[in-house]
Write a structure and sequence with these properties.
The complex is a heterodimer of chains A (414) and B (189). Helix content of chain A is 5%, strand content 34%. Chain A has three helices and 28 strands. Chain A has helices at 6-14, 16-21, 47-50; strands spanning 78-84, 92-95, 101-104, 111-117, 120-127, 135-139, 142-146, 151-154, 168-171, 185-187, 192-197, 212-217, 224-228, 236-238, 245-249, 261-267, 280-281, 285-286, 304-308, 312-317, 331-335, 348-354, 360-367, 371-372, 375-376, 380-385, 391-395, 400-406. Chain B has ten helices and no strands. The two termini of chain B are 33 Å apart. The relative contact order of chain B is 0.14. Classes of the chains: A mainly beta (414), B mainly alpha (189). Chains A and B meet through α1 and α2 of A and α1, α2, α3, α4 and α5 of B.
Chain lengths: 414, 189
């Protein structure tokens, strides 16, 4: 044990009586009116301004009986139930070939496995001591984990759930920035790992290493730039037919309540696409500082605009057969919801449909209700299509995973 | 109360490993360094008076789970239960708010700090009087050296926040501006 500094130890002995009597003046929480001439007069102190701070999830998962299941709404014929609870900061979802669901997060240090044993589900910690292990993907039995500044793997992970080895690092030459440092990780049809290095700021001129999508061979070799000009990405998936990479991109804060809108993008020219950050936002608004002398026409246009500050994160093409045909090969996107906006927006799953050429056709609500009276009761982060065609949804605010199914079949409730 | 008093005597005599002690026996140790009246007199050790329980709870969780690195705090929180951490945060929140530095503040520097707080929108999340809100800490009247250390370690990515919001916020801020912000906040009445 570290010795306390002498001064603390002396105080400890001398001031005990004071500790015992001086505890509870609850009036401490009340704020005195500002004195005349205070430099603080004139600054925003409205309820609206108070709501403009990022909202942090509680540090413990919500008890299963307190989850906001009754608040969540889906179209007729769909059922929403709790799939698993008690998973700290549940964010990225992935499915193993043997049916194990893997869950990782941004605020804590762990990766979890949910093992379904015919109706009962067991949650196991399979890796810990990680630094924002938000990025995670499975490929041919191997689990790849992307932390802020390294990527590691556990081979044949589903055979080792009871005694998982420490992940083996395959790549660690990444910036260590905390801001937008958490990753999203996916494997392309070319069997390479794709991930982003976000901009380490709200708005800035990024370094050569930042604001890009990269790809790597599965052994960690052969780093290449796939796309540039991205601010931050927390969701990518591959079109099941065209095999093109689609991704959600979160745009800058503090420009306005209504702009810019967050984006759905598509890589059509790997190695060449530039999505505009920091010069151009939402495909048509030059930045007020960095946009001078540039044109939005220089950059790849978004496929769709997904709402101002709405924080679209996880996305998957729906490749199952359980949902109605209209969902097939269309995109379900989890919008975690805004903080930099007086009236919260997002906090839902949306269905984005595409035309046969891969361009935008429509966007409609799918699962709603995470915002109640302008407050969050939960925040959806990622989605995962299951083998039976149902859809899992993670909620990092409550540390839970929900299951959305369609049709008359009764799913086992937990 | 009784257990608290006993705990202190034990600590004073033998200084056993903290991780074996329940919260009530550790609290006097916490308050000895952080200031039992809410104001810390200890170098680079924050004042905790009237700190928001949400923020304090999150920090205590991070210390216990070693998501935020500080050898002394990692040891002090080791082995505490979730409810004990939440109780500790409640105790902290009921201490009186910290006393700002009581020298005769330089009006020019105060104005510079105030303007920087507006420029970088510190006054939105931390509120216009910097008393914070829920997960955003009270920083009015905080120790100047601790404010400066926090800003610098957010900037060099050696302090891990819960989310990474502060690292994003400090990205464009220069070190000389940190100095002015810390001066202003530490003296803010």
């Amino acid at each position: 044990m570290t010795q306390l500094p002498r001064r603390c130890a002396v105080m400890l002995a001398g001031t005990l009586g004071a500790v015992l009597v001086s505890t509870p003046p609850a009036a401490a929480q009340q704020q005195a009116p500002l004195p005349p001439g205070s430099p603080l007069i004139g600054q925003p102190d409205t309820d609206a301004a108070k709501r403009l701070a990022p909202i942090a999830p509680p540090p413990v998962p919500t008890a299963v009986d307190k989850l906001p299941l009754d608040k969540l709404k889906a179209p007729k014929g769909f059922t929403i139930e709790v799939y698993a609870s008690g998973i700290d900061n549940a964010r990225t979802l992935r499915l193993g070939d043997k049916g194990t669901v893997f869950v990782s997060g941004r605020l804590k240090d762990k990766v979890y496995a949910i093992v379904d044993k015919g109706g009962t589900r067991e949650v196991k910690v399979i890796a810990s001591g990680l630094h924002r292990p938000n990025g995670m993907v499975l490929h041919k039995g191997t689990l790849y984990i992307a932390e802020v500044s390294q990527i590691s793997k556990i081979e044949n992970v589903e055979d080792k759930l009871d005694n998982p080895p420490k992940p083996t690092v395959i790549f660690s030459d990444l910036p260590k920035d905390e801001a937008h440092g958490w990753k999203y990780l996916t494997v392309g049809p070319d069997e390479k790992l794709y991930f982003q290095v976000g901009a380490p700021c709200n708005i800035c001129m990024p370094s050569e290493r930042h604001a890009k999508i990269y790809r790597l061979n599965l052994d960690g070799s052969g780093l290449e730039v796939v796309a540039t000009g991205i601010r931050q990405i927390v969701g990518m998936d591959w079109h099941p037919v065209s095999k093109q990479l689609y991704f959600t991109e979160n745009q800058r804060d503090w420009l306005s309540e209504e702009i810019p809108e967050d984006k759905l993008n598509r890589v059509t020219q790997p190695g060449k696409d530039n999505f505009g950050f920091p010069y151009c936002h939402q495909g048509n608004i030059p930045d007020q500082e960095f946009g001078w002398g540039r044109s939005c026409d220089e950059f790849t246009k978004p496929v769709a605009l997904l709402g101002p500050h709405s924080a679209p994160l996880g996305m998957r093409f729906y490749t199952g057969t359980m949902f109605p045909a209209a969902y097939r090969n269309q995109i379900i996107i989890a919008r975690r919801g805004s903080w930099n906006r007086t009236t919260k927006t997002g906090g839902d799953l949306v269905l984005v449909t595409l035309k046969p050429d891969g361009t935008f056709k429509s966007m409609q609500p799918f699962v709603t209700g995470f915002i109640q009276n302008n407050n969050y009761v939960g925040r959806p982060v990622d989605v995962q299509v299951m083998k039976d065609g149902s859809l899992l949804v993670s909620d990092d605010y409550n540390g839970a995973v929900y299951r959305v199914s369609y049709g008359p079949q009764r799913a086992a409730r937990r | 109360m009784r257990s608290l008093a006993i705990g202190v005597i034990v600590t004073g005599l033998a200084a056993p490993t903290l991780s074996a002690q329940p919260l009530e026996e550790r609290l006097p140790t916490c308050l000895a360094c952080h200031g039992e009246s809410g104001t810390s007199q200890e170098l680079e050790t924050p004042s905790l008076g009237a700190q928001h329980p949400f923020y304090a709870t999150v920090q205590l969780f991070m210390f216990r789970d070693k998501l935020r690195v500080s050898e002394r705090m990692n040891e002090t929180t080791e082995g505490l239960s979730d409810t004990e951490l939440q109780r500790a945060a409640d105790v902290i929140s009921k201490l009186p708010p910290p006393q700002p530095v009581s020298d005769n503040p330089d009006a020019t520097r105060m104005e510079r700090g105030r303007a920087l707080g507006e420029k970088y929108r510190c006054n939105f999340c931390h509120q216009r009087n910097y008393t914070g809100h829920e997960n955003v800490p009270r920083i009015a009247g905080q120790r100047e050296d601790y404010l400066l250390k926090s800003l610098r370690t957010y900037k060099d990515n050696s302090r891990y926040g819960y989310d990474a919001q502060m690292s994003e916020v400090v990205y464009p801020i220069k070190d000389e501006e940190f100095v002015e912000l810390a001066y202003f906040l530490a003296r803010l009445k």
